[in-house]
Design goal:
Layout: E1 3-9, E2 18-26, E3 31-35, H1 40-43, H2 45-55, E4 64-70, H3 82-92, E5 104-106, E6 109-110, E7 116-117, H4 122-129, E8 135-139, H5 140-146, E9 154-157, H6 160-167, H7 197-209, H8 223-229, H9 239-251, H10 274-278
Parallel strand pairs: 3-4, 5-8, 8-9
Antiparallel strand pairs: 1-2, 2-4, 6-7
Helix pairs in contact: 2-3, 4-5, 4-9
Length: 286
């Protein structure tokens, strides 16, 4: 067939809206065009995909290739669309079976050798896709965090060749089955703080009532020391809370599986600029 349709996900803040990747091979001079409000990172996929297909011993079609990322009004960024674009070209040219494409969602950045590289926001994407009946094909390095979404079926792959073998029925990808070991978080203890009775009382009241807390004062008065111990006063995280916090960290690639079920805390230096604060130097208490 000359047309292939696959599913993937974009990132829009905390949301991961569905993206339909449509690949058409038409007559005319050979060309490779990507449309659908694609960022520069996505448009650069043309060269990565071309090299990955050729180095995986497939034939890159000498056709007029048009890739549409729908909906057209949704911004698309990063290299996560490399894998679905490459699979769409192979399926449209008949080199890969398109029979099972509708049962999967795909995301992954391709190296020039055809290996799959990890992506940002894998957890957020699987969290948005857990209501669908489709399984998610992801790079191996991104599978651990995505598998935290219990209702999702994650199929980790190391390369474009492995995904093609799975779609052709030659060698199926094994679902990711490992679960992270949940240990009791080791937060700093408020009892280590000597004095500061009034401030400690304010922390306890805020934690008990679920209130926001703002500490103001000159450097060296103990604000960061007290704030670092505040998460230890809060109740254990529920699964929904943990997934939401982990999804936020996943958006910028800062999530680590060993931080699962641990309340996030970051302490910026008092001289940090506004740009540094927006870039991640802030604390989240839930």
């Amino acid at each position: 067939m000359s047309l292939a349709v696959l599913k993937s996900r974009a990132l829009a803040g905390m949301e991961a809206p569905e993206v339909t990747v449509e690949v058409h091979l038409g007559r005319g001079l050979p060309s490779f065009t990507i449309v659908g409000l694609a960022d520069t990172e996505v448009k650069e996929a043309r060269e990565r995909v071309r090299a990955a297909i050729q180095n995986a011993r497939f034939e890159f079609p000498a056709s007029r290739i048009t890739v549409n990322l729908a909906p057209a009004d949704l911004p698309k960024e990063s290299g996560r669309f490399d894998l679905p674009i490459a699979l769409g070209i192979l399926a449209a040219s008949g080199q890969v079976s398109g029979k099972h494409l509708a049962a999967h969602e795909f995301a992954g950045e391709l190296s020039l050798t055809g290996e799959l590289r990890p992506i940002r926001g894998a957890l957020a994407m699987c969290l948005a896709a857990r209501g669908d009946a489709r399984s998610f094909v992801l790079p191996v390095e991104s599978a651990a965090e995505a598998a935290l979404v219990g209702a999702a079926t994650i199929l980790p792959a190391k390369s474009l060749l492995e995904v093609c073998a799975h779609l052709n029925g030659q060698q199926a990808l094994a679902p990711y089955a490992n679960t992270p070991a949940v240990t009791a978080p080791d937060y700093p203890d408020l009892s280590d703080v000597k004095g500061q009775a009034q401030a400690k009382r304010a922390l306890e009241v805020a934690a008990a009532g679920g209130h926001s807390l703002l500490m103001i004062g000159p450097p060296g008065t103990g604000k960061s020391m007290l704030a670092a111990r505040f998460p230890g006063l809060l109740p254990p995280m529920g699964e929904d809370e943990a997934l939401e916090a982990a999804a936020i960290h996943s958006l910028n690639g800062g999530f680590r599986v060993e931080h699962w079920m641990r309340r996030p805390y970051q302490a910026p230096h008092h001289s940090a600029s506004a740009a540094a604060l927006v870039g991640g130097g802030w604390a989240i208490f839930r």
